[in-house]
Predict the structure.
Amino acid sequence: MDQSTFDQLVADVKARTDLVAVVRRHVELRESGNHYVGRSLKNPDTTPSLVVWPDTQRWRDYSGGGSGGGDVFAFVQYARGVPFMLALRELAAEAGVPVPGTSNADLERLRERQRLEELLTAAARYYHQQLRDPMRWDLERERGYTEATIDKCCLGFGAGDLWGYLGELGATDDERLSTGLFVPLGAGRHAEFFANRLVFPYWRGGRVVYLIGRRTSASTDAEWDAAKYRKLPVRSEKHPYISALITNDYFFGEDDANTDGVLLITEGIADAIAAQQAGYKCLSPVTTTFRAQDHEKLVRLTAMAKRVVIVNDSEDSGAGERGALETARVLHAAGRDVRIATIPRPEGVAKIDVNDVVRAQGADGLRAVVDAAKALPFFLVERIPEGIDRRELVDALRPVVEAMRRQSPIEQSELKAVIGARFSIAKRELSQQLALLERDLRSERLRDTIDKPVANKPGIVVNDRQRSELIEESSAVLTAANTARIDEAKGVVPAGLPLLFVRGGRVVGLLRDKAGEAPRLNDLNATGCAGSWSATATGSGGAPPKMASRTTPRRRRSMCPRTCSHSRRGRSRHSTPSCPRRSSRAMARWSPRRVTMRASRSGCTSTRRWGSCTCPSRRPQPTSPAREACSSSTSCSTSRSSIPATART
C-alpha cells in the first residue's frame, strides 16, 4: 500500500467514525456547552479531566498535564493500549471501510468507492444550491421545516443540469454513469434520474452514500416518473452501467444511532427529518419498513440506545402499525428496550404522521406522543378487544406470552395485573393459563428447530437454536477477532520460548523455532508443560526444585497418663523406666529437654537430643531420640539387645 492510499484510508475511517460514540464505550460523558467531559482513564481525578470536542473530533486528557490527546485513533490507543494499525483495523471494520491488503483488487475497490462518494456528495451540494426560495417556502409551509433544518440536511432540487456540473469537476462519462444519477438514452444523450424532484441525501460520516427523490408539482406525468418516491438505482441487468458499490442497504440517520438516550424510528425520511428538528435522534429505512435482510444491521445500530421508540404512521389501513409491530418484535427479541408510540388521529382523518404532528404542534406535541409509548407486551394487550370471547382470548394472548419471555419479573407481574383487570380474570387462573401457553410455545419452538436440521446435521437444540449454528457462529466471531492479533504477533514471538495459553481445554504454545520464522501452534502435554515451566523459571532445562521435607518431629498429645510425671502438664522425664504407657515416640514428642537413657544391665550411657547420638561412630539419624539406642559397634560396648524391651520401639 503506497502512502497516498494509506492516507486516504485513514481519512475515510476518520470521516465515518464519531469520536463521541467511541469515547462513550469507555468513559461516561456529560455535555458541557459545546463539548463533553468525563473522568480520566489513566489518572485519578476529582473533577472530569477528559474533554471531547465533537465539532473538531478531538480530545484531550488534562489529568496528566495535558499530554494525552488527539484524534479517534489516538483515543483507541490511549484507552486500550493497542498499536495504531490494530486501532485502524478495528475502526475500519466498524465503519464498514475495507482495509486493502496486498491485492490490487482491494485497492481499486477502495479508490472506486471513495470516488463514488465524492461524486454523490458533490451532487447533493449542487442540488442544494438549486433549491430556490419559492421551494424553501413550500417546504416551510407544507412540511414545517426551518431554514436551519433545510441547510443541515442539505435538501435539494434536481434542476436537470447535473451532468455538466460533474463534468466540470473532472468526472468522466463512465464515472458519472456509475453513480446511478443518470440514465443513458443513446446517441450520447443522458437523462437525470432525479430531475424535477425534491432530493433527500443520506449522510454517513460526513459523506453522502445514497439519495432518494420525492415527486413535486414540476415532475412529469410519464409512467416511469409517476412514483411518489424514487430511490437511487443499483446495479442490475437493466442497469449494468451502475457500479456494484452503489447499494440501497443504508438507513437515514445512521450517525444518530450512536446515542445512549432515546432513539426514534420513523416510517419515512420526511418524518425522520421532522423528528430531528424536534430534537430527537432518529433512524429511518430507505423504504417505509425495514427489510428482512436489514434486521441484523438494525439490531447492531441500536445497541447503544437506552430506549427505542417506533413512531409509524397512524392510518385507516393499519399498515404503519403492522410495520411497527414487525420491527418491534425483531428488536425485542434482541434484548432492546423497544416501545411503540401511537399518534392520536382526529376523527375523520385517514392518516397522520410525525411530520404532521411537528408541523401542527411542534416539538412538545411529538414529545407527548413519545412519552405515551407502550412496551411491546402492553401494546399487544391493548390491541385485544375487551369483550373478546374467552376461547378467542387464549389465542390472542399467545403473542403476549411470547413477548413476556424477555421481561423482568416485576414487568411480568405488572403485565399480569393489567391483563387480569382488563379481562376480569382471577390471578390464579390467569397464571395457570399463561403457564400453559408458555409450555405450548416452548414445545412449538423446539419442534420447529428439530424439524429443520442444518446441512444434513442432526437437530440438536440449545436455547431454541441449532447447536451447529451456535458453534459455527462462535467460530466465525473468534476467527475474525483473532485475525488481527495473529498478524500483529508475526515476528514478535521470541524464538525457542513458547507463549502459553489455553485453547480448547488444552495448553497450547505459540512457538517459533528460529528467528524470522512465523510462529506456529504447538499442543503441549504434561511433560511439555513442565519442561516449558522449568525452562522459563530456571533458565535451564532442569526440573523444578523440590521442597525440603520436614525433619523436625511434630508435637502431639502425650500417650502417658496424667499420673505420670511425663504427662502434658509435667513435661519432664519419666520417673520410672517401667511406665506402662511409656514409648519412645511419646518421649520424642514431649521432651524438649535432654533425654538420658541408662541401660540397666551395663554402665553404657547414650545421651541423645532430638535425633542426635553422642556415640563417636554413630551418624545422626532423623528419628526420635528414643526410637532406638546405640546399635552394636566396635566403639560402643552396649548392643541393641541389651536395652530393655520397654525402651525399644
Notes: The first helix runs from residue 3 to 15. The radius of gyration is 41 Å.
